[in-house]
From TrEMBL:
All residue ranges annotated as the Aminotransferase class V domain in the record: 6-369
UniProt protein name: Cysteine desulfurase
InterPro entries cross-referenced by the UniProt entry: Aminotrans_V_dom (IPR000192), Cysteine_dSase (IPR016454), PyrdxlP-dep_Trfase (IPR015424), PyrdxlP-dep_Trfase_major (IPR015421), PyrdxlP-dep_Trfase_small (IPR015422)
Organism: Beijerinckia indica subsp. indica (strain ATCC 9039 / DSM 1715 / NCIMB 8712)
Highest rank taxon of the organism: Bacteria
The keyword Transmembrane helix belongs to this UniProt entry's keyword annotation: no
Lineage: Bacteria, Pseudomonadati, Pseudomonadota, Alphaproteobacteria, Hyphomicrobiales
Amino acid sequence: MTARRVYLDHNATTPLRPAARAAMIAAMDLCGNASSIHAEGRAARALIEGAREAMARFVKTLPRRVIFTSGATEALNAILTPRLERSNRPTAPFDVLLVNAGEHASVLFGHRFSADAVETIGMTPDGRLDLDALAKVLERYAGRRIMLALQAANNETGVVQPVLQAEALLRAASSDTFFVCDAVQAAGKIACDFDALPADALIFSAHKFGGPAGIGALCLREDVLLGEPLLRGGGQEFRQRAGTQAVISIAGLAGALVDMRETFVQDSVRLAQLRDQLESFLRTLAPAAVLFGTEVERLPNTLCFAVPGMEAQVLLMFLDVEGVAVSSGAACSSGKVKASHVLEAMRVDPSLAGAAIRLSLGWTSHLEECALFMQAFEKAFRTIKARQVKSAA
């Protein structure tokens, strides 16, 4: 077993950035409730509004259009509702919600549309939304009130989704549409403001870019009122999300965000180089390995692959014993290894999908960690192969 742990599961969560930790420690000295009018309350309010302005600058919108939530799951549950109110727009409920088959579970199961008002759009074998299928579905709903949910990049394969093309098809189909883009995995890896991702709502989660878990943001391009907020009570977050604001967590989000903005271009280049080295190693060691999404644009930090005949659960356990943390598909559903709905939507053979491993790098990743992974994986690969040969003899 290696003397140190190697963490290659940043798409699940990435370590807290020093800037986020420092901001949170400083915020711990604030004792006021941000809704109070005394000096202590105003200080807490000032911290929150500073964080809101930082988030608004990041996505290129107005601060009043940034709503802090407990994370991306809450934000998606809140915005994926047929009842949204916008200035100078009809107030009737949206007729249909269209979702990409590879979306996160908080989109697939967290919306508030009735079952008969939801339609799932398939994916192509390369891991992207099937635009031809989307176009055909939009034809049937032409002129209706349409909501579309499409992630900026897939959390399992790292494949960047065709957001620009999907947005163009959506707007052409109807004059009354709403586009929700889950940008959780995109933050810190590719451009993800309202210019790069022309959605109506962008969703973020701090622990994916070096902030604390349990805090996220719903960012809106225009003024929107949630017709039925998930949390009702006080008037916090512009009456869109009740509950005393988590000042310390919001401070951590802002600290991580500012730090990430300063380094993400260099980090993206560096991580892509490391990912490509890992990919080259895998192709050399295991020529039969299948790498998913390599024919299209991917996040610079993500590599999803499968070695035929080697179950993911066995590899995960072997690597964990060797001190290496990786993932099989999404890590936030049940903590168990199970079939990937993303690979299923890509029409990957079930036996191959059951062997899929995801490596995801992050801001702390470096060449030494990758070298340790390669050493551990080669040991696992050769040990499992030897056992298979012995068993077949």
